[in-house]
Amino acid sequence: QVQLVESGGGLVQAGGSLRLSCAASGRTFSVYGMGWFRQAPGQEREFVAAISWSGSRSKYVDSVKGRFTISSDSAKKTVYLQMNSLKPEDTAVYYCAATTSLGLEPGQFGSWGPGTQVTVSS
């Protein structure tokens, strides 16, 4: 099994930046890629971004393109989500996820971290 722990969440004003981190441990040898999802109160979970461990493949939901950047460090078994130009609509609990499948489609992620809160004030 794979254990995931997110960090870096917090409170920031609109237009500000945050960098989330997700550290993976356990049976990480089976992981192909990592992703970020988010869920706001009363909303369904939403895919945000994903990346292969090698960094050769990545994808983003349209609403964060140009503002968020996902990156990976396979040596540290850590993935990051740099969030710039934050908007109140970005407020949510952000979850890290892992996939052992050879793809980055949202439905392929099966391991999850406990989440970290991101709050963007207006």
Structure description:
The protein has 122 residues and is mostly beta strands. It contains no helices and 11 strands. The strands form 2 sheets. Strands 2, 4, 5, 6, 9, 10 and 11 form a 7-stranded mixed beta sheet that branches. The chain has a 4-stranded antiparallel beta sheet with strand order 1-3-8-7, with no helix packed on it. It is globular and about 40 Å long. The chain starts with a strand and ends with a strand.
Short description:
The chain contains no helices and eleven strands. The protein is mainly β.
Helix-strand layout with pairing:
Blueprint: E1 2-7, E2 10-13, E3 18-26, E4 33-39, E5 46-52, E6 58-60, E7 68-73, E8 78-83, E9 92-99, E10 111-112, E11 116-121
Parallel strand pairs: 2-11
Antiparallel strand pairs: 1-3, 3-8, 4-5, 4-9, 5-6, 7-8, 9-10, 9-11
Give the tags.
52% strand, mainly beta, single chain, 122 residues, seven-stranded mixed β-sheet, four-stranded antiparallel β-sheet, 11 strands
Mean pLDDT: 96
Low-confidence stretches: none
**What portion of residues is helical?**
under 10%
Report how far the terminal alpha carbons are from each other: 40 Å
Portion in strands: over 45%
Rg (CA only)? 13 Å
The major sheet is characterized as: 7 strands, mixed
Taken in chain order, the helices and strands follow as EEEEEEEEEEE
- Taken from the alpha-carbon principal axes, the silhouette is globular
Structural class: mainly beta
Number of strands: 11
Helical stretch tally: 0
